[in-house]
Amino acid sequence: MRINEDPFSIQIRDVGNQFHSFRKSDVKEIDKEFGKSLMPGFRGRLTDNEIEDLVSYLSSLLGAK
User: Fold this and answer.
1) Bridge partners of 4?
2) Residue 17 φ/ψ region, left for φ over 0, alpha for ψ in the -120 to 50 degree band, beta for the rest
3) For residue 9, what are the β-bridge partners?
4) In what order do the strands lie in the sheet with 9-13?
5) Which of 12, 16, 22, 46 could pair with 50 in a Cys bridge, judged by C-beta atoms 3.0 to 4.6 Å apart?
6) pLDDT for position 42
7) DSSP line for 15-45
């Protein structure tokens, strides 16, 4: 994920949450993919019971601090 970019450098964070900085003069190519997410694709639909379970779980997190 691109974190910052200026005319001379680009800073990115990888999927392991490691930060990397590169001088653009040292980079051969920068491929920008706008609107692309690191989240995996959703391949199905949740059942009503699964939605209820998910909502219950998320609601329970509000009380746990």
Assistant:
1) 11
2) left
3) 23
4) 2-5, 9-13, 19-23
5) 46
6) 65
7) TT--EEEEEGGG-S-----TT--SSPPP-S-
Task: Give the global pTM.
Answer: 0.51
Question: In 3-state terms, what secondary structure has residue 10?
Answer: strand
pLDDT digits (tens, 9 = 90+) for 26-40: 999 888 777 777 666
Q: What are the beta bridge partners of residue 19? A: 13
Q: Which amino acid is at 57?
A: Y
Q: Which two tokens stand for residue 6?
A: 């200026």
- Helix H or strand E segment including 3: strand 2-5
65, pLDDT greater than 60: no
Tokens 């980079």 map to which residue? 27
Q: Could you give the CA distance from residue 4 to residue 19 in angstroms, rounded to a whole number?
A: 11
Distance between CA atoms of residues 43 and 14, nearest Å = 24
